[in-house]
């Protein structure tokens, strides 16, 4: 079986899991089995099969697992959104169609020579910084839940940081391919542009309080540097710098960082505010939080799909 056929087989498996996920949510909502959930899964599968055929035409020897993994992650996210609100899932599905169409168009446009992007690697790097700065500009950025990530342009609201990830990855790929030999030799001067673009991205992300994306960018940077140079020294040095920087930010950085760490360590203390999602995603507190004997003796109440101690339950009367 060649690479593209393996990709297609994996996509069929993803489609089956998607159908199972939608059916489970539908049964939980309606107590019946509906053919609608199968229809949604078939549409989802057909969309990614079209993307697979575009890959078959443009990059026949590409990795056969990346597209199915992307489809699986998309299916999980779409199923979760469908559980929260079917109308929101349909809106998200519209953007999935646009994303897959853009993916296929990009493959077909660059099918002759994708390395043409290397000529614009510095432009991609600077564009990534510009996109990350965009939410911090007056009249453009919108603060939601303490983080300034969104940009509103008329009726459209989006996170430019998602586009910045693609631009930064293209820059890193182009630069590391060009400088991989000298970087493997450990010449510090060749690390300058790399560290400059990455450091500017980290500063912008910290300024906008996008801590999750900062961690993600750092992981991408370390992984691609290791793949490009093959030197574990860079990974070790990066992890050491991360540990030192994380400690410094926790002690002397923005209060939001301290609150997030505390909410992760003591989620029930922040159950009404920033730890709501953390608590609601723990369906078995007797397994995750308490020994079995103690869990059976503690009174519990249902809260947003998760069992939590009754004393931590949201109470409007107590807040009043």
Structure write-up:
By secondary structure, the chain is mainly α. It has 3 domains: 1-112, no CATH class; 113-253, no CATH class; 266-319, no CATH class. Helix content is 68%, strand content 7%. It contains 14 helices and 5 strands. A 3-stranded antiparallel β-sheet has the order 1-2-3, with no helix packed on it. Helix 2 packs parallel to helix 4 (86-109). It starts with a helix and ends with a helix. The model is unreliable at 283-320 (pLDDT under 50).
Q: Strand order across the biggest sheet?
A: 1-2-3
Main pleated sheet: 3 strands, antiparallel
Task: Provide mean pLDDT, rounded.
Answer: 77
Category from helices, strands and their pairing = mainly alpha
Counted up, domains total: 3
Low-confidence stretches: 283-320
Shape: globular
Number of strands: 5
Distance between the termini: 65 Å
Tell me what portion of residues adopts beta-strand conformation.
5-15%
Quick description:
This protein is mainly alpha-helical and 320 residues long.
Secondary structure elements and pairings:
Blueprint: H1 3-30, H2 35-58, H3 66-84, H4 86-109, H5 121-133, E1 141-144, E2 147-153, E3 156-158, H6 160-184, H7 192-207, H8 211-229, H9 232-252, H10 255-265, H11 276-280, H12 285-288, H13 292-297, E4 300-303, E5 306-309, H14 316-319
Antiparallel strand pairs: 1-2, 2-3, 4-5
Helix pairs in contact: 1-2, 1-3, 2-3, 2-4, 3-4, 5-6, 5-7, 6-8, 7-8, 8-9, 9-10
